[in-house]
Design goal:
2 copies of one chain form a homodimer.
Chain A (H helix, E strand, L loop, with lengths): L2 H9 L3 E5 L8 H11 L5 E5 L5 E2 L2 E2 L13 E4 L6 H10 L4 E4 L9 H17 L2 E3 L5 E4 L4 E4 L7 E8 L2 H14 L3 E6 L8 H9 L6 E6 L5 H11 L5 E5 L4 H11 L6 H11 L2 E2 L3 H13 L7 E6 L2 H13 L3 E2 L4 H8 L12 E2 L6 H11 L7 E6 L7 H13 L5 E5 L6 H9 L4 E2 L3 H18 L12 H13 L4 E2 L1 H10 L7 E4 L2 H11 L3 E6 L12 E5 L2 H18 L7 E6 L6 E10 L3 E8 L2 H4 L4 E5 L4 H10 L3 H5 L9 H17 L3 E11 L4 E3 L2 E5 L2
Helix pairs in contact in A: 3-4, 6-7, 7-9, 10-16, 13-14, 14-15, 17-18, 19-20, 22-24
Keywords (chains A, B): ATP-binding, Ligase, Nucleotide-binding
Protein name (chains A, B): Acyl-CoA synthetase
InterPro entries (chains A, B): AcCoA-synth-alpha, Acyl-CoA_Synth/Transferase, ATP-grasp, ATP_grasp_subdomain_1, CoA-bd, Ligase_CoA_dom, NAD(P)-bd_dom_sf, Succ_CoA_lig_flav_dom
């Protein structure tokens, strides 16, 4: 049996032992047994306790050694000191999976950390699918399995939830009970010693009872695995996650909470984008999206039609629609003609369709039946304010009836409270999201539409990057052999050339004669730069001179630069000067760089040079590997993209040349894990070409 | 009696006549009478109906002519054709105020518009405080007055609400009933023919029963009045408004709804900012803020302390806090020492204070009592997740107890649903905002803190602008006398000089000799520009030459510019060339302009020149008149502000010089209503000074 098979045993175990079961109500070891029984667990449940004979009517096994071999699952609630011995004993009995509820491990410091390491070794060796330690347990409603000490048990449903925080499990469970929302699985991952979010995504992808996956994470420890699994599952089911610890204060709280070290928020955002995971920025959004995705079909286009009995709320909803990536569907003439037949003269036949305050349920029903047929309408938002003549229940019935005959999503805004509540409940129970505000509903439809687009997007092209890896390897090995953490520019350019990256025509000159000869060959004007492995900030020592127009100027510059460098940095080895071609006219400066994220690997960065990156922070990020679409996307994401497209009659820059550099840098980053950071700054780009004018490569120590 | 006195009669009438009262249940004329009776109205209520004898037990008056003179209020529900005659008859009986519920006026087109004009004339002549037409009516709970056909009646409370949309009144009323939120007044303003939001703000400012004012507006028609009243009332009570029709689609819906012409959203934003009105961007925020402001004191600082029984939710709340303008209060050592005395060892004593999942109510109470004393703590957010041992009701009691002893605001996040609901209700009933999500609560606290700062801000200085209005008047009159809608640059500079605005040293030269003489006087290098009233886009005809270094260059440029202009624009009168000093070195270009908004008057605009305004849309707005703080604020608001402060060791520009230009332009705009638009572009600014290098003044036709 592999770990993967054993995960299934966690959710659908045929035999379960509760290690530390207790006859005393109020104790966790009692609650777990009671919860299993109350959930209607159909397999064999064995309480284990050296002192008891019977717990909640079940015969007790005295010690682990007496348990049958090949047990599906053990739930561990013994004190922390007894956890490792228990697991050792269970491993001998060939247990397939375990839930360790007991706390006192990694989260409490060094000693706990060592204990947790021992658990990881044990579980890895014996392929035990272990959830926890330090968790609330897990629930699988379709298997009548409640291996937790949670205070409630949700209805059967199609939403799965896993969480790094037990408290969030508790909160969402209580919310589910309050709102009658059904769940398939609830997993409190605790310290994630063995089973983590990657395993959960992999398992839930093929779980027939789960159609929507929710997750709360504070950090991800196996980034590559997470990305692989997340990218696969989002092709089949939506995954909605809250990632906390996004800000400094949040991250601080995260560290002191479960010892989680929050990765950089940009990397997480890039990871979610890369994999199509939907990020919920707050709890309300998580709940709203869970309900929307689990009940309504995806809208297959941006056109939203609003049907309302009142103008003001219609305007508010239209405002929110225009601020989203949806649009107000333009109704066809035939739709409008059909509505004219039954709508009163003061009704507005255009979107928002205003049925006027006296609209009975029948008017709603007829209108919905007409607009739902319009090919420009991809989703519908029904608005109702509780006017004196509003038929709150009957209108809900009409909406439910229409929704059964269509594959377009319908959302309802009953704007009110007291009088609207029964209608709202009726709609929600029928699987039609109903809220008292229009804005969150529109946000949900927008998110669903974006997810629809994600599912439709064909797999992107990963262009092959021609390269001479061996040549680059030699350069980097040489730098490392000297203990350098920075590759000097002239050698870094070797690396770029090995990857066929466009570099300015450059020569290394050890004397002024050589400098003039190089300049003659390159063509005037040229740039001279100091070449020294110790001097990386060249301008600081006056080590750069531009626009040198003739041999005379080159000769003077050579003397000037080298003399100055020697004077200011007497310890530095001066190899001479680099002679470089000048930037072509009308160039724009861009910056392309990457930083290796601990969790997710190379995180590429793109922005316009100078103040755009430094002051305006107009930067976009993507995780490696970059495909053609990623490269296009990172460029278009920055606000100053318009400047690259050209303003006031300028020609656009050569975008493909930029994309190629981005894609190549991504490959370079993947080829050489010892490069921790690299930056091409500036890359000079005009309508014809892009050239990497300066480069900095930083190696791990 | 003035209109203002008569508004009081609307809310606290001693005698009320219902014109069009009906004995038939279901009719609006019946509902109004029934609503008055159910509200426990204590004055004299007179149904008026030519055919009935008794309605709901009240004796009926047959015709308006038989009503007593000097009636406080009439409620009009007769058919539209009978409204004007009824109002004429009521005016003769010296009625003081009226609510016209009947629709069919401005909102239905030309004929209705004419009827509404007649109503306005009548009410103005007789100083009748008229609400409507086309409205739901009004409610004043503290006066037992329900002059509406609304389907519910709220509890007495301190929130007032006025709305341009009757549907929103209906919705908010139903919400209030559902949530047990009390209101002081509900006013459906309808077409706002007489009583508008300005009157409401003025009246509610001194209404002792109102502590928070909510409003829904689609447009404002009397901008100056609105600003005057809003600025006054926000010094005493918070005003929270939803302005709809913010986007194109929204605005379109607004026009087709009540004939409202939505003003530009920038102008509204500027008007709210100028007056301290809090803008709610969605309904949820409106409701949240209404509850927060009406129940809790203002936080007197940014320090928020989070007290929680669970880590995950604590992190989410800390994230949201860091994204706001609040901060996580740094607890003092003595606070931490005091908490150590009773908190368990695994509790986190730092903010968020984590009491751990088993926290009983007593632990919450003790902790709250300690942190509330910390001077760094200005507001508190209590978090609770329904763990197995959570004491949901007892904790609510503890929070209520502590809140009674403090003047610091307390908000509560009971994260859950089913089990937490009774605690949530208990807290809400006790006036402590309690939500199942932390984020909206933090947003409320932030908004309250910003309002606190607004109340603390001393009145700003309005520097006196030295000017020669007469001189400017002559220039503008001359342009207008020639039917021009554009003031030519040389004359526009006259206007600037009349307002002591810094202009480049300039001379008008009619010949090349005069050009050289002028250049000699100004000092080289100079700029030459074509001077022709018909040529406003000078560069298009090659009419600008810069950096002219000597007399020879000036002479050649003069011939070249004038010849080219004559050839390309043979019909244009060529006055000669302007000779101007060159911009000083190291200047930055900024744009300062204004546009006259229909509702709110001159709307000033500020941004950096070129792409910052055109491509990045990095622009800020303020309404005239501009004080010193406004001028400072508009400059700091743009994202590229850092560029003016100076990057990479640059000196900051002379900010006061920019402020002075802004303040002066605002005065110029107020002095000359015939200027519809003006732009100083570019204004050149460096560390020493700012110069208006080019100017464009557009006059109304």
């Amino acid at each position: 049996m592999s770990l993967k098979d054993n995960i299934h045993a966690l959710f659908a175990p045929k035999t379960v032992a509760v290690i530390g079961a207790s006859a005393a109500p109020g104790k966790v070891g009692h609650t777990v047994v009671a919860n299993m029984l109350e959930a209607g667990y159909k397999g064999t449940l064995i309480p284990v306790n050296p002192k008891a004979d019977e717990i909640l009517g079940l015969p007790v096994t005295k010690k682990i050694e007496d348990l049958p071999e090949g047990l599906d699952m053990a739930v561990i609630v013994v004190p922390v000191a007894a956890v490792v011995p228990s697991m050792e004993a269970l491993a001998k009995r060939k247990v397939r999976s375990a839930v360790i509820i007991t706390a006192g491990f990694k989260e409490v410091g060094k000693e706990g950390y060592a204990l947790e390491q021992r658990l990881i070794e044990l579980c890895t060796e014996h392929e035990i699918a272990m959830v926890g330690p330090n968790c609330l347990g897990l629930i699988s409603t379709h298997d009548n399995n409640n291996a937790s000490f949670a205070a409630g048990y949700p209805e059967k449903g199609s939403i799965a939830f896993f969480s790094q925080s037990g408290a969030l499990c508790t909160a969402i469970l209580d919310w589910a009970l309050g709102e009658n929302v059904g769940f398939s699985k609830f997993v409190s991952l605790g310290n994630k010693a063995v089973i983590n979010e990657g395993n959960m995504l992999e398992y839930l992808r093929t779980d027939p009872n789960t159609s929507v996956i929710l997750g709360y994470i504070e950090n991800v420890e196996h980034g590559a695995d997470f990305i692989e699994q997340a990218a696969k599952v989002t092709q089949e089911k939506p995954v909605i996650m809250i990632k906390s610890g996004t800000t400094t204060a949040g991250a601080k709280a995260a560290s002191s909470h479960t010892g989680a070290i929050a990765g950089s928020d940009q990397a997480y955002t890039a990871a979610f984008r890369k994999t199509g995971v939907i990020r919920a920025n707050d709890m309300a959004t998580l709940f709203d999206l869970a309900q929307a995705f689990s009940t309504q079909p995806l809208p297959e286009g941006p056109g939203l039609c609003i049907v309302t009995n009142s103008g003001g709320p219609g305007i508010l909803a239209a405002d929110a629609t225009e601020k989203s990536s949806l649009n107000m569907a333009r109704l066809s003439n035939s739709t409008i003609e059909r509505m004219k037949e039954f709508l009163p003269p003061y009704a507005s036949l255009y979107n928002p369709v205003d049925l006027i305050g006296d609209a009975p349920a029948e008017r709603y029903r007829k209108t919905l039946e007409v607009v739902i047929d319009d090919p420009q309408v991809h989703s519908i938002l029904v608005l109702l304010t509780p006017t004196a003549s509003a038929e709150i229940i009957e209108t809900a019935e009409a909406i439910i009836e229409v929704s059964k005959k269509t594959k377009k999503p319908i959302f309802v805004n009953y704007m009110g409270g007291q009088r609207t509540r029964p209608g709202q409940k009726m709609l929600t129970d029928a699987g039609i999201p109903c809220s008292i505000y229009p804005e969150p509903l529109i946000k949900s439809i927008e998110t669903m539409y974006n997810y629809y687009l994600w599912r439709q997007t064909p797999a992107q092209e990963y262009p092959e990057v021609r390269r001479n890896r061996q040549k680059a390897r030699l350069v980097i090995n040489e730098a490392r052999s000297k203990g350098a953490t920075e590759v000097v520019e002239f050698q870094a350019q070797e690396v770029l050339r090995a990857y066929n990256l466009p570099t300015p025509n450059t020569g290394l000159a050890r004397s002024s004669d050589e400098a003039v000869a190089a300049a003659d060959k390159i063509g005037y004007p040229v740039v001279l730069k100091i070449a020294s492995p110790q001097i990386s900030h060249k301008s600081d020592v006056g080590g750069v001179k531009v626009n040198l127009a003739d041999a005379e100027a080159v000769r003077n510059a050579f003397f000037d630069i080298t003399a100055r460098a020697q004077r200011m940095r007497p310890e530095a080895y001066i190899a001479g000067c680099l002679v470089q071609e000048m930037a072509p006219k009308g160039c724009k400066e861009i910056i392309i760089g990457f930083k290796r994220d601990d969790q997710f690997g190379p995180l590429l960065m793109f922005g316009l040079g100078g103040i755009y990156v430094e002051i305006l922070k107009d930067i976009a990020f993507r995780l490696a590997p970059l495909g053609r679409d990623d490269a296009k996307g990172i460029i278009r994401e920055i606000k100053s993209y318009m400047l690259l497209k050209g303003v006031r009659g300028e020609q656009p820059v050569n975008f493909q040349a930029i994309e190629d550099i981005l894609i190549t840098m991504s490959e370079l980053a993947l080829d050489f894990p010892e490069i921790v950071e690299a930056e091409f700054n500036p890359v000079l780009v005009n309508a014809e070409k892009a050239v990497v004018a300066d480069v900095r490569i930083t190696l791990s120590a």
